[in-house]
Amino acid sequence: MEEAHTPTPPLSSAPSESSSNVDIKALNEKIQKESSFVTLLTMEMDKVIIGQKHMTERLLIGLLSNGHILLEGVPGLAKTLAINTLAKAIDAKFSRVQFTPDLLPADIIGTMIYNQKQEAFSVKKGPIFANFVLADEINRAPAKVQSALLEAMQERQITIGEETFHLPEPFLVLATQNPIEQEGTYPLPEAQVDRFMLKVVLDYPKKEDEKIIIRNNISKTGFPQPNRVLKPEDILKARNVVREVYMDEKIEQYIVNIVDATRHPEDYNLAEYKNLITFGGSPRASINLALASKAYAFIKQRGYVIPEDVRAICHDVLRHRIGLSYEAEAENITSTDIINGILNNVEIP
Questions:
Q1: What is the pLDDT at residue 181?
Q2: CB atoms inside a 10 Å sphere around CB 54
Q3: 305 within 8 A of 251, measured Cβ to Cβ
Q4: 191 CB contacts (<8 Å, ≥6 apart)?
Q5: Burial class of residue 341 in the structure, from the number of CB atoms within 10 Å of its CB (0-12 exposed, 13-18 middle, 19+ buried)
Q6: Could you state, in order of their start, the residue ranges of all structural domains in the chain?
Q7: H or E stretch including 307?
Q8: Would you put residue 76 in left (φ > 0), alpha (ψ -120 to 50) or beta?
Q9: Residue 285 and residue 17: Cα distance in Å, rounded?
């Protein structure tokens, strides 16, 4: 897994009540109570998804933050299974679209069809009208199709003919990319990649986990199935609670400094990065980092954000928002290396 292996300095403890008008203790108790479903949901997913805890945790963060996820990994790492399992556990509608070069926007969003009996056109909705949409190998379809999907992700609505339809809530798009085969693909432009809240890079499972995966798939009793433990309305309620998680002004400044370091590395003793970065994170990166940090704290059943929450989610929020120069590529420097350097140099509150 493409993750930072950097020493973590001592981090600040919980904020004191005197530093804010927020009653931290009461908020903490509320969050602990409201986030109890996370354990249930995680248990159900762990029955089916073995050894991909990072992916399942990021799926929950995206779901609780109302953000979409771009997954990069070789075929067979349970990407489809993960989002299908999540949909079953929440009793939500799931659809999967295999992106191919001949796909049309109408194949995703739907189209107008002529009804001979009624002698009128009627709307036939496409697979995008679901709570969880898996866009498999999104970079295999042309820009026109990618744009149709990304517009739906941003606007949360679809216009077919003269009618506008709101997409169901919650609405989560999980798009996948195969990092190996790039022949016959249409890479997502930077502006479109930026619409994804998180970009998660998957690795192979550990050997012990893979033994359990084999066992589950060849078992006489059949493959494990998740139980329904939540309803879609519970997720919508939880999203509102996530936004109540307390974030101190010092943490906000820390987030702003991290994102600013991707734009002006020389201001953070990282002058050597100036020629390696062509563009840094936009304000959308700061917003997503703040929201994802709150969701991460919520999952950890804590009512306030600490710097470690920001650091834990930082790679997934920023890795697709840093443009690398030819010089960086020539020196085999990745966005992960850049983020590691930033996290080691930006002062922790």
A1: 63
A2: 15
A3: yes
A4: none
A5: buried
A6: 40-206+218-244, 245-349
A7: helix 307-318
A8: left
A9: 29
Rounded alpha-carbon distances, angstroms, from residue 138 to 61, 111, 146, 147, 345:
21, 20, 7, 11, 35
Helix or strand run (H / E) with residue 157:
strand 157-160
The CA distance from 33 to 238, in Å, is 11
Residue type, position 7, single letter:
P
Res 72 pLDDT > 80: yes
CATH number of this structure's domain 40-206+218-244 = 3.40.50.300
pLDDT classification of 284: cutoffs 50, 70, 90: very high
What are the φ and ψ backbone dihedral angles of 290, each rounded to 5 degrees? -65, -45
What DSSP character marks residue 323?
Answer: E
- For the chain, the maximum distance between any two Cα atoms, rounded to a whole number of angstroms, is 72
Contact between 254 and 349 under an 8 Å Cβ cutoff? The reply is: yes
- Output the pTM of the full model: 0.87
Going from the C-alpha of 136 to that of each of 133, 151, 348, the distances in angstroms are 9, 17, 38
Q: How far apart are CA 34 and CA 135, in angstroms?
A: 31
Torsion-angle region of residue 91: left (phi > 0), alpha (psi -120 to 50) or beta? left
Structure tokens at 205: 């499972």
315's tokens: 């790679």
d(CA 250, CA 276): 29
Q: Kindly indicate whether the domain formed by 245-349 is annotated with CATH number 3.40.50.1260.
A: no
